[in-house]
Amino acid sequence: MNPVPRALRRALLLAAAACALPTLAHAAEADAADASSRTVESVIVTAPSSIANLADVPNTTSTVTAADLARTTSVITPEDALRYVPNVLIRQRHIGDTQSPITSRTSGVGASARTLLFVDGILISALIGNNNTSASPKWGLITPDAVARVDVLNGPFAAAFAGNSIGSVVTFVTRMPSAFEGHVEAQAAVQSFAKYGDDASYWTGRVAADLGDARGPFAFRLSYNHLDSRSQPLTYVTATVPTAASAAGLPVTGAFSDANRIGVPIMVLGSSGIEHQLQDNASGRLTYDLTPAVTLAYTFGLFANDDHASVNSYLRDAAGAPVYSGALNIAGHAYNIAPAAFSGGVYHLDELQLAQGLSLSSHTQGVFDYDLTATAFEYLKSHQRTPTTALPGGFAGGAGSDAELDGTGWHTLDANGKWRPSAAHTITFGAHQDSFKLDNPRFALADWQGGSPGATLARNAGRTRTQALWAQDVWSLAPALKLTLGGRFERWRAYDGVNFSATPALNVGQPALSHDAFSPKAVLAWSPSEAWTFKVSVGVANRFPTVGELYQAITTGQILSVPNPNLRPERAVSSELSAERRWSKASLRVSIFDERIRDALLSQTAPLGAFTASFVQNIDRTRATGIELVGDRKDLWVHGLELSGWVTYLDTEIVKDAAFPAAVGKRLPQLPRWRGAVVATYAATPKLDLTLAARYSDRAFATIDNSDHNANTYQGFGADFVADARASYRVTERLTADLAVTNLNDRKYVLFHPFPQRTVVADLKWAW
């Protein structure tokens, strides 16, 4: 084993433990607390909606506040708020990326449907699929400067959340003013990127404004955000090196020799998906107190994205002109490069999305409170135009296609109550309904840049609906002992499934499906003193297939088919044992967790008729077991120095897989064994905060049979150790200037895609 990663792992473990070691001197003081005041601590997640407003959340929770972010993190997009949260990775390929899925302790970037994300109760998880592209969360609907706090709840231990909480639940809470306030902000970032034939600087600019006020019973916040982002190459055009030499084809130069993720020699012909995005986000929240104890709230977010992507061919002919396709000869080998190899990386994506939420809630803190919430997310417009005409001609126009998502979206309804029959009991309960619609046609275009849609080339569509009843009782058995029991009954249905293709021919109406499931939960918490809390948690989660998983069309040779429109729900049994120690200026938590999933929904290669293909299937049984250490310490060694950190070891296994026996005993994809982060922040003066942070992750496998042993190449999942630095200076009471460097050590790594290299970020904010 390479000794460098091993040393880094040990360093992260020691750094996280060091957060707690200096606090041991305070233990006696904390343990001397009056026994009569010993109670089980509750995690309080405050949010103006029923989805996140749980007074007794049984899950282990990580929280980041706006004040934390102001001191430690350069936030350009809302994903940045989660940069150092334990076991959370956002696969943000570049600033403003709209394909940024989130991971949890036990699920990788290809399992987006195993995490629920909410903004003020509005669901921004795109549960129309379970992938890292179209099913990525809709981050663009959050204005970064409006975020007041973010809570990450680990595991499916709260009955209020659907089975998609197998991994975690993430709730963003936005800020509401108590008086007139506003701010303007300007940011600039530049990334220096060099790999293969690309060596350039990629610039990003952002401007934002925020305005709010509270007058009597009425309060509002309005936010605007504009982002102009240019990305490094996101993909590469490659070709496998033939075994036999040949003199055939047009001689070209410029290709780079490498190996793919399974070690096969390849030639890298050029880079692709080099995006330039213009994004605008308008969002806001309005609240009105009908009475001192009843509030009506309306929340909205409108997101527009204009994305143009291009390519860079490394290939040159004898005259020095770029070459994109055809019969070519590279270093004595013959290649036939299809026009789509490069033209598929040229596209124009035009999106307009709207999210809305309306809630009526009471907050008497008496015997009974309620919350009624309705939300909607709509793709008002989503067109991705791509040329089919060979380049360079396709740059100017020509035939192409238009993939649309207009009309796709989801709606949710929740009616929740909280009953406090006695001091020993808090009973929460509710009814829920959600509906998801996918409508994804692709049309022929005579002119891909501006032509009207022509004949329908393909269409995948369908709907799902889930109805649920849930209840949860938080019962104080004794002053130091608390038991949380809950259960969730869900009725799920999939219907209106359609798959159409003109070539190869396919026109199938899929059968309707339905399932009922019950998910019990139990958490026992014991606090023998104010300083200690021990928890034992067990929960079942039933995650139903998404529309995209059910009604996917797979091309195998010249045949188009849907491999399995009858997928079964995946059923997870999760457990966790945690111990937390708190001091006046520090805390330390250790958690041992385990997840067993039956009928896990993962993409794998299997026979499909006379061919083999990769598609979503039910894997009989999987397992993920790990240990997590999280700690923080304030005023470490000197006043004003704060150190926080976490480290996780994870062991995973595919226990049974009848469809693909070669995967049995292998690790689950996209999940490294070791992960961790350390953040040190020093208040050097009352005006100056300095932060140095480091993040580490082991290599992971991309395939379920772990055949991709060459991780540090395009489409691999390589190890990464990334350092960040930041300085924040309060010039005046109203003016703040920040300067940050992410990937300070300029680590060149890939998580399937090449990730950003060293990036410098400057920020100027004026508040009043």
Describe this structure in words.
- With 768 residues, this protein is mainly beta.
- The chain has one domain (3-174, 186-767): Maltoporin, Chain A (Beta Barrel), CATH 2.40.170.20.
- Helix content is 5%, strand content 57%.
- It is built from 6 helices and 40 strands.
- It has a 26-stranded antiparallel sheet that branches. The chain has a 5-stranded mixed sheet with strand order 3-6-7-4-5.
- A hairpin with a 2-residue loop joins strand 21 and strand 22 (425-445).
- The longest helix is centred in the N-terminal third of the chain and has 16 residues, at 3-18.
Topology (elements, then pairings):
Blueprint: H1 3-18, H2 27-31, E1 43-45, E2 54-57, E3 61-65, H3 66-72, E4 115-119, E5 122-123, E6 147-154, E7 168-174, E8 181-195, E9 198-215, E10 218-230, E11 235-240, E12 250-251, E13 256-259, E14 265-291, E15 294-313, E16 326-330, E17 333-337, H4 340-343, E18 347-362, E19 368-387, H5 393-396, E20 400-404, E21 409-422, E22 425-445, E23 453-478, E24 481-501, E25 506-509, E26 513-529, E27 532-543, H6 547-550, E28 554-556, E29 559-561, E30 570-582, E31 586-608, E32 611-633, E33 641-656, E34 674-685, E35 688-697, E36 720-730, E37 735-742, E38 750-751, E39 753-754, E40 759-767
Keywords:
768 residues; 5% helix; five-stranded mixed beta sheet; mainly beta; Maltoporin, Chain A; disordered N terminus
User: What do we call the CATH homologous superfamily?
Assistant: TonB-dependent receptor, beta-barrel domain
Helix content: under 10%
> Strand pairing plus helix content: what structural class?
mainly beta
What is the arithmetic mean of pLDDT?
91
Integer tally of domains: 1
| CATH topology (level 3) name | Maltoporin, Chain A
Shape: globular
The CATH architecture? Beta Barrel
In total, the number of strands is 40
How many helices?
6
Strand content: over 45%
**What Rg do the Cα atoms give?**
26 Å
Q: How far apart lie the N and C ends?
A: 55 Å
Biggest sheet overview: 26 strands, antiparallel
